[in-house]
Design a protein that fits this description.
Number of strands: 27
Structural class: alpha+beta
Radius of gyration: 36 Å
Helix content: 25-40%
Length: 699
């Protein structure tokens, strides 16, 4: 998708990005373009951070939950003021980049068209929103970039993404004079320990002899290399994680690493726009090597954060209902975080509702169910405000919620909002049996994970609502009870498919026509959705209407077929209709592409009724159907069924029908309910709905 670069255009765009960064105080940014005939944003230029950090967002789809996608789609500036805001608004990004930094994303437009998007980054020290002057600088920069992109497109050479985003070089510092260089060298040599420098891509650009000695490697082998590649013992998660944290947050970082066999080294990282200065000293857990108090706590390592993300996100994608979300969250989150209990809550009609819990006694949790959301209790406040709460002791918890009684035996608590579509839809209580301090990194990670749970819960609630609606719709479309017809015994069963929650198209019905006659039908509409269910209701109604006016089975199907072809639903239906004369114990049936009915005679032998199958309903308007008359003596059983009862992957249909006939042969014909249960119980696990109707003439 790449194209030859326009040097003059590159220079103009570089200047525009430099101007917007200087005017807004941002230390870096990312420029996205919207190529012609593409609805996705592509990253073309990056400044201030390594390309590897931006790899997950090289291509951003319009509906991706990212700041730049929201900015472009909603035509507004998006501001994320820090790690906690990122965790609340964009949990996926916060989990991958759990660092202190602020971010703004803005759309780039020109000539009435969207041309791309701009992302700008600020140090974690920033605590306020953009000032009016900074916002003006961002708007001016986006306007300038938009005009440049428009001009390039008008020339027939639009900016297209290359194989890799183009990285802008950091600003070059003033070269020192010879005297300054000598003084600087002496200053560095006099510092305790050793020193080295990394560029923005993490490669070593300078190392003192003392630093090389501490690292146990020759200076010539280190310069130009990545530390975690040149020194295998540094290939541990916290090294690269702290380097990334320093670059993204522009705040000092620290960590300790064991150099085999037993030398602990302490590293202090000091970033600026050109790279990172590193101070190395001996130290460790037994030698006072903990990070200096002035340096921020590292929080959870990147490997731990990604572990949580990978496992929880992957399991939540498989959760289909609310109970699935509860079980998956408890199974994955509690052991990963070392928590012992959790409660998942939501709001309903102004009251707190407990959706599920783990690790608590039911009677303890039940006391909070149905409390007003205005109550001063943990969970309700978080649900209404969307602000997380972390309590390392019960005193802290009681200070926030004075009415709280310490009855759960826990020592620390985290209360997390579950956010979906920018709004809190629930809250999650995590409890720890031992005292637990929540450093900033862990708070952000927990808030991000809760965001993923909130999104999964929102999907699960929609799933459950659709599932409930599906069952109600299915129940409304199928007969609640079959009519009592003198001289006829019947049993019916319906079993929905094991997969999904969609409404099925299988149906059955028994129609009392007069004192001595009745009609029976069974059918299967193609598909598993609301359209199929609606058509199923229409077919059942049409068959019922034509049957009650005395039409013969072949005519019932022909008339129903004409109705369906007139409606043109785009779906096809198989169907069997049987007319039952109870006085003569004779029956007549016609079928439209449906599995053949089975007749169990009184002596037990099974007859596959040889009726021509006919064409499915809804294909050709003038289709004619053939009727078959047969005896239905006392003691016989007519079995009407849909294909879900016999079809299974890898099983021959004739063999499956023969197996069904064998079950029917050996079942007790005097107990139709037991016979129906036997046939359903031995059916394959349904990948399709199953409908079954058993009919037997009686005295």
């Amino acid at each position: 998708m790449g194209t030859a670069r326009d040097t003059a255009l590159d220079a103009a765009m570089d200047a525009a990005m430099d101007a917007v960064a200087r005017g807004s105080g941002a230390f870096g940014g990312m420029l996205y373009v919207l190529p012609p005939d593409d609805d996705a944003l592509w990253l073309v230029t990056i400044a201030g951070v390594p390309q590897e950090i931006a790899v997950p967002w090289r291509r951003v789809a319009p509906n991706d939950p990212t700041p730049v996608a929201d900015a472009v789609r909603e035509h507004r500036l998006v501001w994320v003021g820090g790690r906690e805001e990122m965790a609340l608004q964009y949990p996926r990004q916060a989990l991958v980049l759990p660092y202190d930094f602020a971010l703004a994303a803005a759309p780039i437009t020109a000539g009435g068209s969207v041309r791309g998007g701009l992302v700008l980054l600020w140090s974690g020290l920033r605590s306020t929103r953009l000032s009016a002057e900074e916002r003006d600088a961002v708007e001016a920069g986006c306007h300038r970039l938009g005009e440049l992109l428009r001009q390039a497109a008008d020339r027939g050479a639009p900016v297209l993404p290359g194989d890799r985003p183009r990285a802008l070089r950091p600003p070059a510092g003033r070269p020192p004079s010879p005297g300054e260089a000598a003084a600087l060298s002496g200053f560095v040599d006099r510092l305790p320990g050793g020193s080295c420098a990394l560029d923005v891509n993490g490669r070593i650009t300078f190392v003192t002899p003392a630093a090389a000695d501490l690292l146990g490697a020759a200076a010539g082998d280190l310069v130009g290399a990545l530390p975690w590649e040149a020194l295998p013992w540094m290939d541990v998660p916290q090294v690269e994680d702290r380097y990334r944290a320093a670059l993204v947050s522009r705040l000092p970082q620290a960590f300790t690493v064991l150099r085999p066999p037993e030398t602990w080294l302490a590293f202090e990282l000091y970033p600026d726009p050109t790279g990172i200065s590193v101070r190395i000293t001996r130290g460790g857990p037994s030698e006072g090597g903990a990070p200096p108090p002035s340096l921020p706590s590292a929080g959870p390592g990147r490997a731990t954060v990604l572990y949580h993300l990978m496992h929880l996100a992957s399991t939540l994608t498989e959760a289909v209902g609310v109970q699935d979300v509860i079980e998956q969250t408890a199974d994955q989150l509690l052991p990963a975080l070392g928590a012992q209990a959790m409660v998942l809550m939501t709001g309903e009609d102004g009251r707190l509702r407990i959706l599920g819990h783990r690790g608590y006694r039911t009677e303890v949790v039940a006391r909070f169910d149905a409390l007003p959301l205005s109550s001063d209790v943990p969970g309700a406040d978080v649900l209404t405000t969307g602000v997380p709460g972390f309590f390392a002791t019960f005193d802290e918890l009681r200070h926030a919620y004075p009415a709280t009684v310490h009855e759960d035996g826990m020592a620390a608590w985290a209360l997390l909002p579950l956010i979906a579509s920018g709004h809190p839809i629930g809250s999650l209580l995590l409890s720890f049996e031992r005292p637990h301090v929540f450093p900033p990194g862990e708070r952000a990670a927990l808030t991000s994970l809760a965001g993923l749970i909130g999104q999964a819960l929102d999907r699960a609630r929609l799933y459950d609502a659709k599932h409930h609606l599906a069952h109600r719709l299915q129940s409304a479309l199928l007969p609640h009870t079959l009519p009592r017809v003198p001289g006829l015994r019947v049993a019916a069963r319906y079993l929905p498919a094991a997969r999904g929650l969609d409404v099925g198209g299988d149906f059955y019905d028994l129609i009392r026509l007069d004192e001595h006659t009745a009609g029976a039908t069974i059918g299967d509409v193609q598909g598993h959705n609301v359209d199929a269910a609606a058509l199923m209701g229409q077919v059942r109604t049409a068959v019922h209407a034509h049957a009650t006016v005395g039409a013969s089975p072949d005519d019932v199907l022909a008339r129903t077929n004409r109705l369906l072809t007139d409606l043109d639903p785009g779906l096809f239906t198989s169907c069997v209709y049987v007319h039952l004369d109870l006085a003569t114990r004779r029956a007549c049936l016609a079928t439209a592409g449906h599995p053949p009915p089975l007749l169990r005679h009184a002596d037990g032998h099974i007859q596959l009724l040889p009726v021509p199958p006919g064409l499915l309903l809804g294909i050709e308007p003038d289709t004619l159907y053939t009727a078959l008359e047969f005896d239905l003596p006392l003691g016989s059983v007519l079995a009407l069924y849909t294909d879900g009862l016999v079809e299974a992957p890898g099983v021959d249909l004739d063999d499956a029908t023969a197996a069904l006939a064998g079950l029917l042969e050996h079942a007790d014909p005097t107990d139709l309910d037991a016979m129906a249960d036997t046939l359903i119980r031995h059916s394959p696990t349904p990948g399709d709905d199953i409908a079954l109707l058993l009919i037997s003439p009686g005295p």
